[in-house]
Design brief:
The protein has about 120 residues and is mostly helical. It has one domain. The protein contains seven helices and no strands. The protein has helices at about 5-10, 20-30, 40-45, 50-70, 70-75, 80-100, 110-115. α2 (about 20-30) crosses α6.
């Protein structure tokens, strides 16, 4: 079960709302067998390729997000992968916390990690 309040300080109410996007995306993410993905298998065989494979995935994610913003009507037909969706949501929350646009007086896991990190350690995209 997704614990959004404990981890990110957001109220998801997944116990009462089965159509909550966080619940749906996290369920889909954990349903997939990541061991069958070619890049994951390749990283197990050649661990020294992990930084390159990570860059490939980031570039793929950037291209997809760029196309989604340039051609929204066409790209909205394709569902965003659950892992990318979760990463984007967490990145938005981190950006809000860093820019102080959201009240950061909540004590949750993310805020504790941001408070413990130095400004050089926090990467804002």
């Amino acid at each position: 079960m997704f614990k959004g309040r404990c981890a990110f300080g957001i109220d998801t109410d997944v116990q009462n709302n089965v159509n909550n996007p966080f619940l749906i995306k996290s369920s889909k993410f954990f349903e997939d067998n990541h061991e069958k993905i070619f890049i994951v298998r390749l990283s197990y065989l050649m661990p020294w390729l992990v930084p390159l494979l990570t860059q490939i995935i980031r570039i793929q994610m950037g291209i997809f997000m760029g196309l989604r913003s340039l051609i929204p009507r066409f790209m909205n037909r394709f569902e965003e992968l659950p892992g990318f969706w979760i990463i984007n949501q967490v990145q938005n929350i981190i950006n809000q916390r860093i820019n102080k646009t959201e009240s950061s007086n909540r004590i949750d896991l993310l805020q504790l990690m941001l408070d413990a990190a130095t400004s050089d350690q926090v990467k804002v995209s």
